[in-house]
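Why do we bother with holo predictions? Because pocket geometry can differ from the apo form. Keep that in mind while you read this record for (2R)-2,3-dihydroxypropanoic acid.
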Amino acid sequence: MNVFVTRVMSKESIEYLKQYFNVKINEKEKTLSKEELLENVSDCDAIMCLLTDIIDKDIIKKAGRTKIIANCAVGYNNIDVEEAKKHGIVVTNTPDVLTDTTADLAFSLILGVSRRIVEADSYTRAGLFKEWGPTLFLGQDVANKTLGIIGAGRIGKAVAKRAIGFNMKILYTKRNRDETFENDTSAKFVDLDTLLKESDFISIHVPLNKGTYHLIGERELSLMKKSAILINTSRGPVVDEEALAYALKSRRIWGAGLDVFEKEPEINKELIKLSNVILLPHIGSATIETRGKMAMMAAQNIVEVLNGRAPINPV
Ligand code: DGY
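The structure, written out:
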């Protein structure tokens, strides 16, 4: 059987797949175009792909003999899951293994934005540090503040765990109340508007779907405190970027930390001009250990499904 891997992934995962299957890999350090994907999927029994591969209806139709699409990410908005289901194709993702890594990045952004780390670094490198000053790069405290978690799933809860160490008060939204989480963290279940009004830091951890597209727009930004800091490590289109750029520029909110963008890898031109936002190139899960585990998990799902067993992480 043939497995098509859309980008170079960890050696271990490829070696593992090679024990069972013929493995074809896109060796270019570049995402394949739709045409290239179409060319490659017709004879494969499994596709191992990334969030940058748009697996739409056309690709799925062309992948006539494919039994599994193993996405090497926890998010799977890049795949038309409904269409895959219609064709009897299993879709899997890589939950859990990236939870701590992504939560670490979200917390780095909380600290980085509040203490203006990137701005201060640029200032220092530019040779502008001539003397210590009492008002030089004044930031905001993190300890004892209120953190609003939009979407207290695995990653949201891991961010909350970190916040406990900073003695933060935690507010959260979630489809349903989570009493175990509340007992563990003293977090308070609130509606979105209350969270937006009362939080000093707001960290987004929802998947992208029709219900979460532009969840944070002009209205929501206008409810936040003027001192609020917004962090997004989930998916770019959850935030209306134009509205956010305006809120940051007009100092309607204090700052933002973004690891994801609406039209990735394109970055809103207004955001680039602003110093009160940290912009990162979608590196939430980017550690050597975690990327290795994600690739291995995707490979294991392929091995299970092509051997006629149930997938470990179906979406
Ligand atoms: C995911 O897994 O969805 C992350 O965004 C990848 O870094």
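The chain has 13 helices and twelve strands.
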